[in-house]
Specification:
With 90 residues, this protein is mainly beta. The protein contains one helix and six strands. The radius of gyration is 13 Å and the shape is globular. The chain starts with 20 loop residues before the first strand and ends with a strand.
Length: 90
């Protein structure tokens, strides 16, 4: 499992926005998981515009502990078919 994460327990009553590019190592279905301390949303697409204009693929509707992947059903995205070597915005 590869992990893309921010530092934990750094402040109260603040937020973090993260973005980046994901390069698929293999062709096939990929599943993304999300955890966050108080609400989070994950958008994903082949470009920034497609990602931001598309529905979110996963969310945390409340809070979860660090790396607590299964507190809410919404934390697990449906499998997404990706192509090896292709870049995807998240």
């Amino acid at each position: 499992m590869d992990i893309f994460e921010a530092p934990v327990n750094i402040c109260d009553n603040c937020g973090t926005e993260m973005d980046g590019w994901f390069k698929a190592a293999t062709t096939g279905d990929h599943v993304f998981l999300l955890s966050a301390d108080d609400n989070a949303h994950l958008w994903f697409g082949s470009t920034i515009n497609i990602a931001m204009d598309s529905p979110e693929i996963a969310s945390v509707p409340g809070w979860s502990a660090n790396r607590q992947w299964a507190k809410y059903a919404e934390q697990t995205a449906d499998p997404i078919a990706l192509t090896a070597g292709s870049m995807y915005y998240m």
